[in-house]
Write a structure and sequence with these properties.
49% of the residues lie in helices and 26% in strands. It is an alpha+beta fold.
Length: 162
């Protein structure tokens, strides 16, 4: 964009010089030649101005896109304020925050996979236990309804009937 601006300024300076040549011209041929050259320079200036206009519009679009991304990031940041990465009893990592729901304090868990994609998705309990053969324990499960991932959460008192 700076190169186009410099070219436009140079063409303007040359145009000013051509106006002086026209006013100092003594013959009709000199006037016609200088007028022709002046027209070419003016066309070059006009072309450079169009290029500058396109470059400015392109920059404006980039600025608007960047502002939208910043606003999106700021919105996500404000919505997730207070959430921290939490290691549950099962070993699962989720983003958690204590919140008051009604009159009760509860911990809200967010899906870590969706969180990294800037999507807020609260994990919902499935009501089904999941067995972990490494710990020989059953854990409550929660599901992310955005990405459908299942997460073992905290220890369940479930005992299978054989």
């Amino acid at each position: 964009m700076i190169a186009e601006f410099s070219a436009a300024l140079t063409a303007l300076k040359e145009t000013t010089g051509l106006v002086k040549v026209i006013s100092d011209a003594k013959t009709d041929a000199e006037i016609k030649a200088a007028t022709f050259e002046l027209q070419n320079k003016l066309l070059a200036i006009q072309s450079d101005c169009f290029i500058l206009g396109d470059a400015i519009r392109s920059r404006d679009e980039e600025v608007m896109l960047l502002k939208a991304k910043v606003a999106e990031f700021e919105e996500f940041k404000s919505q997730t304020e207070g959430y921290v990465l939490n290691n549950l009893e099962s070993g699962t990592f989720v983003y958690s925050k204590k919140q008051i729901v009604g009159d009760t304090e509860t911990t809200v868990h967010l899906c870590p996979q969706c969180f990294t994609k800037k999507v807020i998705s609260i994990l919902q309990p499935t009501g089904e236990p999941a067995y972990n053969s490494h710990t020989n324990k059953y854990y409550f499960q929660s599901r992310c309804h955005s990405c459908t991932s299942l997460f073992p959460m905290n220890v369940s008192a479930y005992k299978p009937v054989w």
